[in-house]
Design the sequence.
């Protein structure tokens, strides 16, 4: 098994579902990012707006105020910086401050300026599947075949990105675990993740602490490390190349051991 890269999560928000409020202060967020790099994160994903179901939207000014100093503080510190935003103005400021990756959970649908910005700047772009928006996505999501539908969506968004001038080599794809999916949809996507490799681009997967784990065993967000590790290892076995996780040290150890066993 090829060991995946770990993308450590730095949420500069008051309301993220598992760590909201812990790193709202830029100094605390930067210190946390440094810890994640020391623990083995090759990428840090810095976000200033929660995407949890029902989350309120944040203004551009507020999101910039949260994200920009943290990107500036962590850029050049040993990990590539990703900015978790769907706003072009925030992505632009983050790229100016040293970010290299734009992680847009709307897959370039949220802001008409985003695709051109990423193309112009030669940024890496994460295109993620989401049914609906964070406000609405958990109200009875319905698919034909969830894997086929997610795959078709990602193929279509990749075409849009390429048409906008984003080089295919700069695109990563993400099934969007927890974004407009029932627990069963998430489990099926993880079980059949390898089918998404047919799209030909690296897969990024984020299962960390998500509610599908709690649906399986009744755990709360703070008690899902075991489920995060199990789902992360299996995603890597199925071909995920980047794992977006909060618990970098623990998931990293699990990966190293899994990799040593599987060779
Ligand atoms: N998950 C979350 C946020 N951003 N980006 C990608 N590409 N893939 C994901 O699975 C993903 C993501 C949700 O996790 P978190 O950031 O911890 O929570 P919140 O959105 O409440 O801040």
Sequence:
């Amino acid at each position: 098994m090829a060991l995946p890269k770990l993308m450590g999560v730095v949420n500069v928000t008051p309301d993220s579902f598992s760590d909201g409020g812990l790193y709202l202060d830029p100094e605390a967020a930067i210190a946390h990012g440094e810890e994640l790099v020391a623990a083995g994160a090759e990428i840090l994903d810095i976000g200033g707006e929660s995407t949890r179901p029902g989350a309120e939207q944040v203004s551009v000014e507020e999101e910039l105020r949260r994200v920009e100093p943290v990107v500036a503080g962590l850029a050049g510190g040993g990990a590539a910086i990703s900015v978790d935003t769907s706003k072009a103005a925030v992505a632009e400021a983050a790229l100016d401050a040293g970010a290299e990756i734009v992680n847009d959970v709307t897959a370039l649908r949220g802001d008409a300026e985003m695709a051109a910005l990423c193309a112009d700047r030669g940024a890496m772009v994460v295109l993620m599947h989401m049914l609906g928006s964070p406000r609405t996505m958990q109200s009875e999501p319905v698919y034909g075949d969830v894997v086929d539908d997610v795959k078709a969506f990602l193929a279509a968004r990749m075409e849009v990105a390429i048409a906008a001038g984003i080089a295919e080599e700069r695109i990563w794809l993400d099934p969007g675990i927890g974004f407009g999916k029932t627990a069963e949809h998430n489990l099926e996507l993880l079980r059949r993740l390898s089918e998404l490799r047919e799209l030909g681009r690296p897969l990024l997967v984020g299962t960390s602490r998500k509610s599908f784990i709690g649906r399986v065993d009744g755990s709360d967000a703070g008690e899902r490390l075991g489920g995060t590790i199990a789902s992360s290892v299996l995603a890597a076995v199925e071909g995920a190349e980047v794992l977006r996780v909060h618990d970098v040290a623990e998931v990293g150890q699990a990966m190293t051991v899994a990799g040593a066993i599987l060779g």
